[in-house]
């Protein structure tokens, strides 16, 4: 028996049990509304999407071509449009997620106005955005099912076979997909991290990403001045997130541990070692130090640590921070990754300064020597100049191969010469674009990247599309700028946004009015509605 019929039978029995008091309630309408809202709470979503993500991780372990992807969304509508587009073009939402960027929450969702990525925004804005995104994704479900119900009613009215339509309803694939949600550095101590993680999970998050920076000194991963914390501090926050998942019954919850050590040269405190070779002693071994012969060499407030059996004084900067030795960055990244995975994290995020597969693979392979199934979430960041970086890579490779580069400008004095538009059709640019196009597939295979995301794409698409429209509309093109560059394109691409009233819920509202008020319903739709011309 179909799911639709099972629900219908259930509500028929329920209505009959209430006698005449529910005589105006239609079991079919009730069953439709129930199916339109498959997920009743955020925890329902978190449990469902955690299972999806775990299955995807297992599929990737078996076959690296089964990597996953997402785009960062700063509003429920952008997430909704992304997933509706994925489903329309790919006929499935499988292996497609939503990324929630702390950067975009700070820049676009704070009541303080636009802020830098420094954890200055209200932390409650993060769970609020998770809930908003899932509200919009659930509405995409309701809208699509509403269309199928109307199709079903029309077929019934004509006496046509409804088997195919019922199959579509029974096998309906939801737009609700996993969200990887950024909790920054935890917004405080481990208790604060736990409390915020609970709110995020209750809103629907099945995957929480946390970084090893100092919470009150947090910087964007692609900016300078990053300060990392000792491993014990970071692992305590990983524990806090895991406890939050377990308390709420989301046993498959996913933790993404991000290390910023590749670009961080500072730490705020020197941990106390309790045993030779423990994490604290490994962390302090990377510090920049000077030798001391006795306590008499120390000034007030200074400390000494034992490294290799000798007393060393950590170099303390004028701002009170301690500095790591140059050249220890990769070793620190590997230690961060191994300890995180061995202490409850499920996935890694290595923040890099450029999108270079060889660099990423080198680090991942070192981690896999100790944790063979280590996997990455990787930031295909808009902070990278992808065009320039990949043209540089190709130029350098060809130079090493002895290829004739005389027709290309020499980037040794100014790399930006490779950005010149006149190079766009050259062999070098074509090869660089090919590498960019294959970056996700190649790095999934060679560098252990399970999930590819772009943190801020919808920030940039909103800025670009608005700039293009404003230039034309307020310029010579006038109204043609909107008609030619927006509406005409939406119609030809068959986007749901063309019928914006329907997308915003007008037809769903009319359907519900019919359920509630019958023939007395005052509906917004009808032949006179302008959206019917589309």
From TrEMBL:
<keyword id="KW-0479">Metal-binding</keyword>
<feature type="binding site">
    <location>
        <position position="182"/>
    </location>
    <ligand>
        <name>Mg(2+)</name>
    </ligand>
</feature>
<dbReference type="InterPro" id="IPR040442">
    <property type="entry name" value="Pyrv_kinase-like_dom_sf"/>
</dbReference>
<feature type="binding site">
    <location>
        <position position="258"/>
    </location>
    <ligand>
        <name>substrate</name>
    </ligand>
</feature>
<dbReference type="InterPro" id="IPR039556">
    <property type="entry name" value="ICL/PEPM"/>
</dbReference>
<feature type="binding site">
    <location>
        <position position="455"/>
    </location>
    <ligand>
        <name>substrate</name>
    </ligand>
</feature>
<dbReference type="InterPro" id="IPR015813">
    <property type="entry name" value="Pyrv/PenolPyrv_kinase-like_dom"/>
</dbReference>
<dbReference type="GO" id="GO:0046872">
    <property type="term" value="F:metal ion binding"/>
</dbReference>
<feature type="binding site">
    <location>
        <begin position="221"/>
        <end position="222"/>
    </location>
    <ligand>
        <name>substrate</name>
    </ligand>
</feature>
<dbReference type="InterPro" id="IPR006254">
    <property type="entry name" value="Isocitrate_lyase"/>
</dbReference>
<dbReference type="Pfam" id="PF00463">
    <property type="entry name" value="ICL"/>
</dbReference>
<feature type="active site" description="Proton acceptor">
    <location>
        <position position="220"/>
    </location>
</feature>
<keyword id="KW-0460">Magnesium</keyword>
<feature type="binding site">
    <location>
        <begin position="379"/>
        <end position="383"/>
    </location>
    <ligand>
        <name>substrate</name>
    </ligand>
</feature>
<keyword id="KW-0456">Lyase</keyword>
<protein>
    <recommendedName>
        <fullName>Isocitrate lyase</fullName>
    </recommendedName>
</protein>
<dbReference type="GO" id="GO:0019752">
    <property type="term" value="P:carboxylic acid metabolic process"/>
</dbReference>
<dbReference type="GO" id="GO:0004451">
    <property type="term" value="F:isocitrate lyase activity"/>
</dbReference>
<feature type="binding site">
    <location>
        <begin position="101"/>
        <end position="103"/>
    </location>
    <ligand>
        <name>substrate</name>
    </ligand>
</feature>
């Amino acid at each position: 028996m179909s799911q639709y019929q099972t629900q219908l039978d259930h509500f028929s029995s329920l209505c009959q049990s209430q006698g005449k008091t529910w005589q105006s309630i239609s079991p079919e309408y009730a069953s439709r509304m129930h199916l339109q809202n498959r997920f009743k709470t955020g925890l329902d979503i978190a449990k469902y999407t955690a299972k999806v993500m775990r299955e995807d991780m297992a599929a990737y372990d078996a076959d690296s071509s089964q990597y996953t992807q997402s785009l960062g969304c700063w509003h429920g509508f952008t997430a909704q449009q992304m997933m509706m587009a994925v489903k329309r073009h790919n006929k499935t939402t499988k292996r497609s997620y939503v990324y929630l960027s702390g950067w975009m929450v700070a820049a676009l969702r704070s009541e303080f106005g636009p802020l830098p990525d420094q954890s200055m925004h209200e932390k409650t804005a993060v769970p609020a955005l998770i809930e908003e995104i899932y509200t919009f994704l659930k509405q995409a479900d309701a809208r699509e099912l509403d269309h199928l119900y109307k199709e079903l009613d029309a077929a019934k009215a004509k006496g046509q076979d409804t088997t195919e339509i019922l199959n579509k309803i029974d096998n309906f694939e939801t737009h609700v997909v996993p969200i990887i949600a950024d909790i920054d550095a935890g917004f405080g101590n481990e208790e604060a991290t736990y409390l915020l993680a609970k709110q995020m999970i209750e809103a629907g998050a099945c995957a929480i990403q946390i970084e090893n920076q100092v919470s009150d000194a947090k910087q964007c991963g692609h900016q300078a001045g990053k300060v990392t914390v000792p491993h014990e501090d970071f692992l305590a926050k990983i524990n806090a997130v895991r406890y939050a998942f377990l308390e709420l019954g989301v046993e498959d919850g996913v933790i993404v541990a991000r290390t910023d050590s590749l670009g961080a040269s500072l730490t705020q405190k020197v941990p106390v070692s309790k045993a030779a070779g423990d994490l604290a002693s490994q962390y302090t071994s990377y510090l920049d130090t000077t030798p001391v012969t006795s306590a008499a060499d120390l000034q007030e407030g200074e400390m000494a640590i034992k490294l290799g059996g000798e007393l060393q004084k950590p170099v303390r900067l004028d701002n009170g921070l301690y500095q790591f030795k140059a050249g220890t960055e990769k070793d620190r990244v590997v230690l961060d990754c191994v300890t995180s995975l061995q202490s409850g994290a499920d996935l890694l995020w290595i923040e890099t300064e450029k999108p270079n597969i060889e660099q990423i693979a080198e680090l991942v392979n070192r981690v896999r020597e100790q944790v063979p199934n280590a996997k990455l979430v990787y930031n295909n960041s808009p902070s990278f100049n992808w065009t320039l970086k990949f043209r540089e890579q190709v130029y350098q490779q060809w130079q090493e191969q002895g290829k004739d580069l005389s027709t290309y400008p020499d980037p040794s004095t100014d790399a930006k010469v490779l950005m010149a538009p006149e190079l766009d059709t050259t062999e070098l640019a074509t090869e660089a674009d090919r590498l960019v196009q294959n970056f996700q597939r190649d790095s999934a295979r060679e560098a252990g990247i399970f999930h590819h995301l772009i943190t801020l794409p919808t920030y940039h698409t909103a800025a670009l599309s608005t700039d293009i429209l404003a230039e034309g509309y307020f310029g010579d093109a006038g109204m043609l700028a909107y008609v030619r560059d927006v509406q005409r394109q939406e119609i030809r691409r068959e986007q749901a946004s063309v019928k914006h009233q329907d997308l915003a819920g007008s037809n769903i509202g009319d359907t519900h009015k019919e359920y509630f008020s019958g023939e007395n319903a005052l509906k917004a739709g009808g032949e006179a509605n302008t959206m019917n011309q589309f």
